[in-house]
Amino acid sequence: DIQMTQSPSSVSASVGDRVTITCRASQGFGPWLAWYQQKAGKAPKLLIYATSTLQSGVPSRFSGSGAGTYFTLTINSLQPEDSATYYCQQASAFPFTFGPGTEVDIK
Amino acid sequence: QITLKESGPTLVKPTQTLTLTCSFSGFSLSVSRVGVAWIRQPPGKALEWLALIYWDDDKRYTPSLESRLTITKDTSKDQVVLTMTNMDPVDTATYYCAHTHSSTWWAYWGQGTLVTVSS
After folding, report:
1. Which of A14, B11, B29, B59 is the most exposed place for a label (fewest CB within 10 A)?
2. How many angstroms separate the CA atoms of A16 and A30, rounded?
3. Residue A81 touches chain B, beta carbons under 8 Å
4. What is the least distance, in Å, from the CA of A10 to any CA of chain B?
5. Residue B75 DSSP label
6. Residue B117, H or E segment
7. Using an 8 Å Cβ cutoff, are A84 and A77 in contact?
């Protein structure tokens, strides 16, 4: 199985800040990485797929990049509604695996 | 508009078998490259992919639970069913079903159903 890790586990930032979340994989794979946002009590929401493609309707302040074993999710100009937990997911090989999540809190 | 909704028991006893149904609309599981997955999330913990069934009845399971899982589809009813045998308290989680089409990520999710395993 491809193991996914994320850092930091949590971050507290102010409105307008830039936040970067890192996702690392135990082995390299192609661009088959997705990012999800999950708010309390809700189902995950797909933000980015194929490493850097923004899902329809997702604000452009979200962006993704990376390759191999290292991927990042960046939130530019953090907004109050971005308070959530963010998960990366490798979509390259069965079994699909998720990172442990990064909680983003607004100061 | 694609929608999915999970249904099933909210409480099961240890060793019992859990049966969850995902009822969906807005797509057909008879269309090429469409699939429905089950993903779960224990309270306060991360997401875990469990199983996936494709339009052509290809089925995939997470290896650690494969012996306990069965996924089936009923195209005429627009439903996917997941059964998990020998339930244990560690299986307490919110169970989600999700749709995929020509990809291995999920843009459409159900609201989730919380299943508690307790005697």
Report:
1. A14
2. 32
3. no
4. 14
5. T
6. strand B113-117
7. no
